[in-house]
Design a protein that fits this description.
alpha/beta, Alpha-Beta Plaits, 12 strands, Aminopeptidase, 40% helix, globular, disordered N terminus, four-stranded antiparallel β-sheet, 17% strand, binds zinc ion
């Protein structure tokens, strides 16, 4: 009976993907080469999309033009669009196809404050002084996914390959503001695999625990009492004093924190003018650590310090969580599958002009890297053995919901400091365009693997269940 049941069960499992045509390795290689050729024929489209999103340069939660433009292209190409997902006006989800597997393609879209920069100019030269700019390179990832998706869609339609493609933007990634909401609101409930992309300076992918941190973003707002600062200062209670005390108190605390933590703050409201005792003031913190308990411990210390600052100034304090990100964990099956495609695609051919620009920018910012664009692909990234501190991305939240990887692609110059005008220089030049074309080929080939080989999706979930579901997964 048991044998019969198992046989029936595995037959049913196979039937779930019954329509997926079994392709010989020769046929597989042929449709992948076809996808790459189709993407090569769309290099103009790649350039226009990358440059156009660069020109919008919209900060987190303000990505209106970007959303309108990209969803317009997807609509023209047969995708159905849902706008304003998870209650976020600039967020959207685009879908095409039917049935399993459901492959989700995501990338961030927001830019960096005060990073406005003329592309291709190897010194600081803003387009608009003080304006935001793509000083991270988030103008390139969604165009990459669009290229891959419309290309694979053509092949799936012609060859009757079942499956669903889903595209979505990482809105306000710089504020870690959207992906936790997407997962909580069920947008990844029926997704089988998520292929995320992030701009880098080489082609690469990794599996297991990634370097970097998870984090919580919280704004503390103090309330006091206003008064004439000269006429009756004794009648005032300064909320700005509380902000200053919290800021300086945290700097004292810093010496006694775990060296892997990263915490930083800005004062978002320091009062209005000197002759009015500030009745309201706010300070915004990012608390980053390697694991969930460590993040919560750091956050609790921040809350305690806020309470202390309120007590010292006879004010009150309220806190508001503005964002959060889980530490990232990537899927082994999907990463190793993608890495084979990275080896097939290889790096773009850089021109002398590309290399000259890259080296000039590296020199301008005193980078330790001086060799321009890479000529060799990255090794497959393995799980970190000792934790390494650093940045965060709320793709972490999705990586604990469904098997996920991040494809890095070479659209930016190696060795820059990040979140800086220099990181915008390459982002609307042939370096960015070529990097996107190479990344789109890898992405397209990996989608083709996933929609034609059901065992890959099964193995990805096996890894996910064995390696991740057993570990702690409490949502921030
Ligand atoms: Zn980013």
């Amino acid at each position: 009976m048991k044998i019969f049941y198992t046989a029936l069960f595995s037959a049913a499992l196979t039937m779930g993907f019954a329509q997926a045509p079994k392709l010989s390795s020769k046929k597989m290689a042929a449709i992948k080469a076809e996808a790459a050729a189709k993407i090569d024929s769309r290099t103009k489209m790649a350039q226009v999309m990358v440059d156009k999103v660069f020109s919008f340069s919209e900060l987190g939660f303000q990505e209106y033009e970007t959303a309108k433009y990209i969803t317009g292209i997807l609509k023209e190409n047969g995708f159905t669009i849902e706008m304003g997902i998870a209650g976020i006006p600039t967020a959207w989800m685009a879908k095409w196809g039917s049935g399993k597997p459901v492959i989700a393609l995501g990338s961030d879209v927001d830019c960096i404050p005060k990073a406005s920069q003329k592309p291709g100019v190897a010194y600081h030269d803003p387009i608009v002084e003080g304006a935001p700019g793509h000083g991270e390179g988030h103008n390139s990832g969604v165009p990459l996914n669009v290229l891959a998706a419309i290309t694979v869609k053509e092949i799936m339609e012609r060859d009757n390959i079942p499956g669903t493609l889903v595209l979505w933007p990482g809105v306000a990634e710089e504020q870690l503001g959207s992906k936790a909401y997407y997962t909580r609101d069920g947008y990844f409930d029926d997704v089988d695999v998520c292929l995320f992309t992030h701009v880098g300076s080489n082609l690469g992918v990794s599996w297991g625990q990634a370097w970097g941190t998870g984090m919580i973003s919280v704004e503390y707002t103090f309330s006091g009492e206003s008064a004439h600062s000269a006429g009756a200062p004794w009648r005032g209670r300064s909320a700005a004093d509380a902000v200053e005390l919290m800021s300086v108190g945290w700097q004292y605390q810093r010496e006694h924190l775990d060296p892997l933590q990263r915490s930083h703050h800005v004062i978002t409201n320091g009062g209005d003018q000197p002759n009015v005792v500030p009745s309201k003031a706010s300070i915004w913190f990012y608390f980053r650590q390697i694991t969930y308990p460590e993040i919560m411990e750091l956050y609790a210390k921040g809350n305690k310090m806020a309470d202390g600052a309120a007590m010292m100034t006879n004010t009150s304090v309220e806190r508001r969580i503005l964002g959060s990100a889980w530490p990232r964990h990537f899927n082994k099956t999907v990463a190793t599958t993608m890495y084979e495609n990275i080896k097939t695609v290889g790096l773009p051919t850089w021109s002398n002009e590309d290399q000259m620009l890259a080296r000039a920018v590296q020199k301008e910012v005193d980078s330790k890297e001086t060799d321009g664009m890479p000529l060799k692909i990255s090794e497959l990234g393995l799980p970190v053995t000792t934790p390494q501190s650093g940045g965060s991305d709320d793709i972490g939240d999705i990586s604990w919901k469904v098997p996920t990887i991040t494809l890095g692609y070479p659209s930016n110059i190696p060795g820059l400091q990040g979140h800086h005008w220099s990181n915008a220089i390459a982002m609307a030049t042939p370096i960015a365009h070529k990097g996107v074309v190479a990344g789109a080929k890898v992405q397209a080939m990996t989608i083709l693997d996933l929609v034609t080989k059901p065992e890959l999706v099964e193995n990805a979930w096996k890894y996910f269940k064995e390696e991740q579901s057993s570990k702690t997964n409490t949502s921030l």
